Each structure stands twice: as C-alpha cells, then as structure tokens.
Amino acid sequence: MAYDRDQATHEFTRWSESYDRSILQWLLFGPSHRALIRRIRTVVEDRPARILDVGCGTGVFASRIRESLPNAKVWGIDLVAEMLTKGAERWRQHAGHIQPAQADSERLPFASGTFDIVTCANSFHHYPHQDRAIAEMHRVLRPGGRLMLIDGYRDGLWGWFIYDVCVAGVEGDVHHASSKRFRELFAQAGLRAIAQKVHRGPAPFLLTEAVATDPAPSSIFPSPHFRGVMGLANREASASAIPRED
C-alpha cells in the first residue's frame, strides 16, 4: 500500500509525545535548521521578510527563525493537530510574530505570491503527492522568492542505509527523493535557478533551493481546511493571517 495522509497523521500523532526530545533534534534537525537559517540570512539579510515553514511540527524551527531573524514574520503549517498543540508554549512566546495553523501541504491556505521564503525541513519524505506539495509551495511565493527544502540525502550508500532502510523501517513506506528527483520536481513546478548542496555527517541531508517565477494559478483543489491552534487563531488572529484567494 502506498504511503498516504492517514499514515502520516498516525505517525506524527504518535511521535508528538516525544518529538522535542528525539535524538534527531541533535543528529539531524539542529544541523539542518542552522543550514537553512544561514541561507535565509544570506538572501534576506536584515530586511523584513514573510516566511512560511511547511511541516512546522512543534515550532522548533519557526522559533529559531524568529530568534535569528528578528525582522521576519513567520507562518507555520502542519497537518497534525497534536504536533501543533505540543508547541503551545512556543506559539505563546512568539505571539504576533509566528502564526501557526493546521493545514495540508497540498492545499496551502494562502494567496498566491504571499511569501518571500518558503521552507520545508525534514518532513517532505512523508508527503504522499510530492509534486503537488512543491507546486503549492511555488504558488504562494512571490516572483523572485525562494523555496528552500531540506530532506535526508539518500543517494550514497550510507544515506541509502540510513533513510531507505532504517528510517523507512521505523516510519513505514516514506519516500526520500533522490537529488535528481528533487531537481525534476522543482523544474516541473516552474521553479528556476535550482541549486543543491549536500551536508555530510552521521545523518546527511540535502538542501535544494530555487527561485520562484510568476505566481502559479490557483490549484485545482477547492479551498483548503484552515484551523487555528491553541487560541492563537481566533477570529482576531485568523484575520491577521493571509487568506487564500480562490
């Protein structure tokens, strides 16, 4: 059976209890977050920026963006309510600067051309329809904006063993795309100036980055579900979010 949204939801609901204490926070998430923040800082410098983090989990990376880039405003979306709930204290600490919401990566609840940067760190292998997710990330970027996506680097023998054997053995039939497949997905979505960098280490990861062209037309999907988290997206907070125009 192909990996699907229900499996991803089940996996992350189970994982939400220990996510912030996972060894992966040290082994993979920390190094990859630092790499992404270096790239974002290079691109935006100290200018104000609107950043969307897709698959934000408990908000660890979103909070690191705010701490490193105080002029940034961050939106975070995650499919799994329990992950967002576990980040309640972070959302409170950064209220007004980070806007979390429960939403689907294939149906982002934002208008086309909204963000300067879209990030996705270490969750892409859980997305059942990776081409749709990339197309949506491109759609919500302004022309000239950047998509920065990090996932496990599985092309070498060690990466294959870590991700296609060990991770897949624990997480199920997830799919870590090859570097070639990432280039194909980005090009298919209309992104340009595609660049990649491999970060070596015990858990090697690949950063794929590209520049948005003109905003893509609205997707074929109907208006997505949009659910606020922990009282931060009540009517007033929801009004501050950037709605999708369908």
Automatic annotation (TrEMBL):
Oxidoreductase among keywords: no
Lineage of origin: Bacteria, Pseudomonadati, Planctomycetota, Planctomycetia, Isosphaerales
InterPro entries listed in its UniProt record: Methyltransf_25 (IPR041698), SAM-dependent_MTases_sf (IPR029063)
Methyltransferase domain ranges (all copies): 51-145
Keywords: Methyltransferase, Transferase, Ubiquinone
Any one of the GO BP annotations: methylation
Signal sequence region: none
Protein name: Methylase involved in ubiquinone/menaquinone biosynthesis
GO MF term (any one): methyltransferase activity
Pfam families associated with the record: Methyltransf_25 (PF13649)
